[in-house]
Fold this sequence. Notes:
Order of helices and strands: HHHHH
Number of helices: 5
Low-confidence stretches: none
Helix content: over 70%
Amino acid sequence: MKKYRIIYWISTVIIFLFEGVMPALTFQTDMAKEGISHLGFPEYFGVQLAICKVLGALALIIPGIPPRYKEWAYTGFGISMISAFVAHVAVDGFSAMSCFPLLAILVTSYICFHKLLKAKNSAVPA
Length: 126
């Protein structure tokens, strides 16, 4: 279980940094606003997305959050990443920049989360 715990925390911290900290610090920059408008989204969507990403990242990184909320955070990030991929491909066409490996890191975190949750639940006597 130690291996899964290490992989979980490394992958979850990467998700936290890219999906929580970075949007919180950059969502009001001109480059972020330009990127949102380039994809055809209104400016308020960037603010909404940043708030949801920060809340989701906090749900993943804080240990005491119930598993159900973590599940919703994983789902939200998955939808966000797939939607971003589709938007980029639809507007700019497929390129190397379209494939950012963050979804693979999210899936790794999710799988390890469930392995640790299963081990925790089986260790508790009924």
